[in-house]
Amino acid sequence: MLSRCLILGLSAAVMVGCSSSKKELPPAELEKFNAEVELDRIWKRNVGVGQGDLYNNLTPALDGLTLYAADAKGRVVALERETGKEKWEVKLKEPLSGAVGAGGGLVLVGTLDGQVITLDEADGSEKWRAQVSSEVLAAPQTNGDVVVVQTQDDKLVGLDISNGERRWIYESTLPVLTVRGHSEPVVDVRQVFAGLASGKVVALSAETGIPMWEQRVAQPTGRSELERMVDIDGRLLLDDQTLYVVSYQGNVAALDAQSGRPLWQHAASSYVGPGAGFGSVYISEADGTVQALDAGSATELWSTEALARRQLTAPVAFSNFVAVGDFEGYLHLLGQTDGRMAGRVRVDGDGLRAAPLTVGDLLFVYGNSGDLAAYKLK
């Protein structure tokens, strides 16, 4: 059973609930192991209240040598990547639900009431605001020319980066029942890629919003609306000319970024995005299974149930390992060749929801309570 909060839309009403089952198995107990590697914390900073009381997934963003992060109450900070030293901090009056995007000289955040707020990367001063159709649960993204926002009602909106005026809008039909949240759109120079609650991926012209191709990754099946949920809720991963995407109760797929042509598909169910590295694609499944697939053929390389039902973050490749966080705040390092447990550190007692972020030999982890830390391998 899905243990996340769901949004159920009926006519004009929106009802929020969480699925549960008395028969649901408990999270797997963490087994002892002989650590092969240890993580050394380089610095740590607190970013307000962190994820807050709602099921937010506020994720830090890197742009150059600066790391940007935000909390649910509207605090936004810019930190030096290597030291964690604060460059600036602003406190917005609006609670945030979609954060953080960065690029084109701007820091981009979204709110529950559908506002997109942009700040100057240099000093945090506000540049402009724009109103969109519904709450923004994923960080807005930009290619330096257009800011793209995906809203909770499954619309994609292109805003002019200089003033926030709307350039285009793409609308899709929202299913009756969806997982709360959205994947972040991927924006390159020419195209915008987005995963939809219908189980489809769409590529739009970044300049005009005109659809370039559409591809279904998952087909709704089953008799109930719960069984038919196939949301693409995790961020899409663009690696060269291949787009990797995974849906809930559907598939993980590799698509040709130019045409949308499926290169391969493999059965999977996940509400967080895939990771990639070492010629492999990594998936944190909804049931806590972590698996690695060959990036060229989808052949399963390994799978582990050691973290079953531990509500995992998206996996990321780091050094020779795969890093993934869980609901108790542990960060796990798995061997990239076989999935063995190689290292572990507890980062935040309130849990980890945001995917770890890596650059070079640094691994950044943002805990649910608001603690943001940088680690290196010892």
Automatic annotation (TrEMBL):
GO terms for cellular component: cell outer membrane. Keywords: Cell outer membrane, Lipoprotein, Membrane, Palmitate, Signal. The keyword Nucleotidyltransferase does not apply. GO terms for biological process: Gram-negative-bacterium-type cell outer membrane assembly; protein insertion into membrane. InterPro entries: BamB, PQQ_b-propeller_rpt, PQQ_rpt_dom, Quinoprotein_ADH-like_sf, WD40/YVTN_repeat-like_dom_sf. It is a lipid-anchor. It holds the Pfam family PQQ_2. It is found in: Cell outer membrane. Transmembrane segments: none annotated. SUPFAM superfamilies: Quinoprotein alcohol dehydrogenase-like. It comes from the Bacteria. Residues 73-304 form the Pyrrolo-quinoline quinone repeat domain. The keyword Membrane applies. Part of the outer membrane protein assembly complex, which is involved in assembly and insertion of beta-barrel proteins into the outer membrane. Belongs to the BamB family. Part of the Bam complex. This is Outer membrane protein assembly factor BamB. It comes from Halopseudomonas pachastrellae. The gene is bamB.
